[in-house]
Design goal:
Largest sheet: 5 strands, mixed
Strand order of the largest sheet: 5-6-1-7-8
Strand content: 15-25%
CATH class of the domain at 246-391: Alpha Beta
Number of helices: 13
CATH architecture of the domain at 246-391: 2-Layer Sandwich
Number of strands: 12
Structural class: alpha+beta
Shape: globular
Length: 419
Amino acid sequence: MYAVVDCNNFFVSCERVFRPELRNKPVIVLSNNDGCIISRSTEAKALGIKMGVPYFEVREQCKQNDIHVFSSNYILYGDFSGRVMNALSEFVDREDDLEVYSIDEAFLDLETYRDPENYCRTMRAKTEQWTGIPVSIGIAPTKTLSKIANDVAKKYKGYQGVFFMDTKERTDKVLASTPVKDVWGIGYRLSSKLTEYGIGTALQLRDADEGWIRKKFGVTVLRTIHELRGIPCFFDGAVPSVRKHIASTRSFGRNVTSMEDLREAIATYVSWAATKLRKQKSAAGGLYIFIRTSKDHTRLHQHEGVFRELPVATDSTPELIHHATEMLQELFHEGSIYKKAGVMFSHIVPRGSVQLNVFDKTDRTKFSKLMHVMDGVNLRDGQGMLKFAAMGTTQNWMMRSGMRSPQYTTKWNDLLVLG
DNA sequence: TCTGGGGTCCTAGGACCC
DNA sequence: TCTGGGGTCCTAGGACCC
């Protein structure tokens, strides 16, 4: 048996922990740059606020209905995510039985526990008590089924946050009322295609012909079908701790036209991404950067990005900034209005196994000591405490986030004061 | 005009997830 | 005026090899 634990309206719930007066009130959280809506309280959903819509489209509605709006505060959410996962880890015997799947979701392997339902009810109550974050739990023989069970736990209050999809009758009934688009792994494209062939529910997908599915839809959908039949196929769904690509991209808070601003932004993104790179003890062998003027020019835009294979895989911020700055020269056009930029590292290898280059003259030990010290200080005193001059000081291109809550749990000056 | 068989590796693009 | 960001896997096709 698997259980999937999913935090309810996670970002909104994090905001409410330190603002208890917002319980039972409509609350939403916006994406970076205050662009779209990415988390909604139950009350906000009831008012018809849709997931993913641009904020400016509903700003008036938010005002009229007294909806509380937050910019996103990923440092806070990341910290709460860690707390929730810690709480859950108290409920497994072996570390491997808890698989952190995303910032607000985890799978538990329940094979060794009798009475999983009651076990999960206790876990749910304790997690909320310890962290302040309410969760829902779905239990079933496979991960795909447990995700569907989780939806039931969320949707029907009567189950009080935990739904155990154990019997065949129960499972068939739930699958028959689950649209195929709500099955884990079936997105917009596949569900429209499946529906064309008359497969509109999870039950119909489960009972579809294997050979036909394999031919028409490939092995991924076939595995999903096995999962729906109760045969586990997705074992290691955990986010791999060592990533193959590392990116940092942001929309600007305002239009950017100058080379100086772009250089600052690119240097800043390189620095963020390089911190992630060093955290997983990797080095990057390839660097891609792009600058983008605005959306949906699909054709005129062939040259928005450029890739460079690095002579030696590296994790050194100044070295990466150096390359990125050179590459930026190739992309920049005087007179263009830029909205967004980003960097991506690829060809990632373990730091210890970097292939040296005979012609390489860089003193790598010196840089590596410097990076080590910077990472240490920034970890202790907050990101950005020590940074490179190339990142700039004004950073007036930085994304908007005017409605961001304090970093209650990670910054001394933001500690909540009582009395 | 004729024209085998079996592989590997890499990349771009499509699909998905949260 | 204003529409996020960061990942994964699979597949098809091209280049190349013997």
